[in-house]
Amino acid sequence: MPEPLLASIGWSAKPEAARAGKEAAEAAMARLGSAKPSCALVFASSWFDQAALVYGARSVLGQVPLAGGSTAGEITPEGPSTHSCVVLVLSSPSIACSLGMAQGVDTAPREAGQQAAYAALQGCKVIPRAGFLLFGDGLLTNYLDVARGIQEVLGTGSLIVGGMTGDDLRYQRTYQYANDQVVSRAVAGILFAGHVKIGAGIEHGFAPISKPRRITKARAHVLYELDRQPAASVYEEYFGPDEVRRMRDEGLARQAVAYPLGIQLGGADQWLLRNVVSLGIDGSLTCSGELLEDTWLQLMIGSRELAIEAAAKAAAHAIRTLNQVSCVIVFDSVSRRRLLGPRAALTELAAIREAVGPATPLAGCYTYGEQAPMGLSAGVPQTVTQTGSVLVVALGT
Amino acid sequence: MGYIVLAIGVLTTCVLALSMDWLSFWPALLTILGCLIYLALRSQGPHRSWDELKRLQDAYDQLDRQAKLVIRTDLELHRAQEELDRRLASLLSLHHFSQQVQVSLRPDEVFRKVDASVVTNFGMLNGLAGLCRSLDAVEWQSLVGISPPVAEQIKQHLMQTGLLKEILTNPAPRVLHAGDASHPAVPRLLELLSVHSVVVAGIMPHTGPAGCLLLGRGGSSISAKADEDLVAILVNQLGTAVENSSLYEEAWAAKRELERKVQERTKELADANAQLLRLNKAKSDFVSAVSHELRTPLAAIKGYASLLGSGQFGPLADAQKERIQKIEKHTDLLTQFITNLLDIAKIEAGRTTMEIRPIPVGEFFATVEELVHPQLQAKQIRYAVELDGVQELIGDAQHLRRVFMNLLSNAIKYTPEGGTIRVAVRRQGELVEATVTDTGHGIGPDDLPKLFQEFYRANDPVNREIRGTGLGLALVKRIVEAHHGHIVVASEKGKGSTFTVTLPAA
Predict the structure, then answer these.
(1) Are B220 and A243 inside 8 Å of each other by CB?
(2) Which residues contact B322 (CB under 8 A, 6 or more apart)?
(3) Residue B427 half-sphere exposure toward CB, CA atoms < 13 A
(4) pLDDT in tens, B73-129
């Protein structure tokens, strides 16, 4: 009889990084009791000294496979948080957890994905493999190839989901954790196998508002022209010159995260969202993910009600295939947090909690992107980077 | 468009007709013309569709223009909503903060309440709060989003550049931007904080240590004035809380000091008391030893004086008899004095055993009266005993007799001839109260508290004429207390005195 999967969460808001990591890990381990940890996931504020934080957590967790990353805000069982560290520990003798990490995503993304998946496979001979939970650099936009690389190694039967690490909306540098290493421009993740199931649900709740524009010039994640006009001038049409000037002055498009760009794929309701991260002096828009020329793009608008509904829907979808839910990991887009504000962000988590059950351990973070198969509910297998979405990952049996 | 095609077709047909044989080509020309007319008519269809498309395009553009308006309005609303949320969160945070700091008992604890929730709810990215014992020193108590090494760098930067002093001398909250020329230290400070602007404020309470607060701001779109206003409230609360905690700390320290002093004094008193007890015991032992040593020779003196006075050794002259009688009288007084001293010493040392048993009150006071009767008669003093139905007393009859003998002897001594002495006994619940009231000279108020002290005699002209050892009332008090009772005196100069002895009834 396979053992059930246990999960426990600890968190800390101590200002000293090592102490915060240690305290969060200690709290998680204390809640776990005498059970032996199988792996740990760490979500921490980018304000911490990252190496010291991971060192603090590892000093308690020992040699347990550890993956995680810096965030744009943490999610504790009590609600949204900032400047804190959250540690989720999973335990079951019936599962196998193996860490895979590869750097150089910015130069060779596909190879990095393959390398990370190979590394994870090396440490995991158990089958069946449930899926790969990854953490990618939120400032890079080529994770479609990373996901392809992973999938080439693991096969299409393994679910690939995860989040893109953040840096509290500073857009300077994000970090990925892999055991005792703290890296950037990397992919780190844990391969789950054995008596474990992973369910995922991703929704956004945004709706198109502008007329469709054709991407006439784009390279990777930089959008140059829409309908043969400079992309920024089209953007200015909608937001007005003052707002665009403000975005340029700040160097960040903070306000724009509430209005992502939507690329229609497949069916009428299949929207791939992209945040505008910054505005270039050449009139280009730097986005949070890849863009393809000759696809149609629309400006999206959201509402708090729709966003909360979407979260509940994603949570319900995540637990749909699980008999018993052990824990829930939420990767919530930072743009949604911006849209929701502090009170509605709490309501959003309450909606998720209501869907998954109040006793289910829940942790996660606010991300710069969410990695999940596009059209998850429609069964389209390809994992892509999405933004403006809430990804609920349920682990259980 | 269709008409142009038709015109071109007609012209072409005419040219062909003129250049060719009319009859042979007429049917063909008619056919061509028909086709052209048909084509011309057909071309009206696309023209109509084009118009519709145009209209649709216009409507679409119109909708897009409306979308732009919606987005801009939504953006404004979103910004207003964000600001409202932030204000609300800030106010809630202030409310929560004020509750938290109210229970803070130390200034450093007050500063530590500036935590991540306060910083985040104020819409700030990071923050530091510290205690300033002087204008150029700060000790960070709270760090949010700042690592200790960076906090140390900020501290050094603030101190070395004089920015700290400026914040403390001009404590009102203000936003410092990267382009701020108010102080050259600002750009480096912002760099260390990793923010574009920072709110700085000094905390200057009336009592207690000063402090400073630095909050790294988020986007520049947020009103600096609004931030300054909110931080001003926060700083006021911090200042008040520091004042309160300082006052509490002072009060607490004073209380601790007082407690320490009370403990010290109590110990000193206890030590002194123990020393006194030791000395008292030594004194009692000494008195007891000396008294014993004195009694034997006194007994011999008394014996030999009696023998001499009896004339066994030959007849005595009157003068000799008189002297021997004086020797006997003074020997009796000295013996009485020594007996009293010994009794006091015995009672104090707990060596006296009280034989407690019921005493018939009537019989008891009759015996006492018999003993003092000659003295009463000698001074013609009226004597009355009122028993008020009290039948029994509980105590050692012999010792209690000495009590009332002493009280009555004193009363007789100090009551002028023809005066009155009254003994009244009455039941007071579980107690029996016996009073001896005289109409004597009375006792002055200064003497009353010391009356029961050993060897104390009232400083009174009357007292100088009346002999006494100053031990009688001291012995009375000790005997009464050995019965678990107590004795008090009430007196007024010239009106007499009342001694009240209270004893347990059972």
Answers:
(1) no
(2) none
(3) 12
(4) 888 888 788 778 878 888 888 888 888 877 777 888 888 888 888 888 888 889 999
Taking CB atoms and an 8 Å cutoff, what residues of chain A touch B219? 250, 252, 254-255
Contact by Cβ (8 Å): A302, A338: no
* A198: nearest Cα among A397, A374, A370, A6: A397
d(CA B300, CA B302): 5
Q: Which of B85, B111, B113, B217 to mutate to test the interface with A (most CBs of A within 10 A)?
A: B85
The Cβ-side half-sphere exposure at B388, using a 13 Å CA radius, reads: 12
Say yes or no for a CB contact (<8 Å) between A254 and B219: yes
Joined tokens for residue A95: 């599962």
Sign of the C-alpha dihedral computed for residues A334, A339, A345 and A351 taken in this order: negative
Residue found by looking up tokens 């988590």 in the block: A349
Distance CA B175, CA B217 (A): 9
Cα–Cα distance measured from residue B330 to residue A23, given in angstroms and rounded to the nearest whole number: 93
Separation in Å, CA of A1 to nearest CA in chain B: 45
**Residue A252 contacts B where some CB pair is shorter than 8 Å:** yes
**What's the rounded Cα separation, in Å, for the pair B217 and B40?**
71
Separation in Å, CA of A76 to nearest CA in chain B:
13
Are B221 and A243 a contacting pair, CB within 8 Å? no
Backbone angles phi, psi at B501, to 5 degrees: -105, 125
Instruction: Look up the pTM and report it.
Output: 0.64
DSSP SS3 for B218: coil
Q: Please report which helix (H) or strand (E) contains residue A44, including its range.
A: strand A39-45
How many inter-chain contacts (A to B, CB under 8 Å) are there?
104
Mean pLDDT of B310-326: 85
Q: Strand B420-428 and strand B431-438: pairing?
A: antiparallel
Answer whether residue B44 shows pLDDT above 70: no
CA dist., res. B13 & res. B8, Å (int): 9
Distance CA B110, CA B130 (A): 10
Cα B111–Cα B114–Cα B116 angle in degrees, nearest 5: 150
d(CA A216, CA A224): 8
Residues 6+ apart with CB under 8 A from B95: none
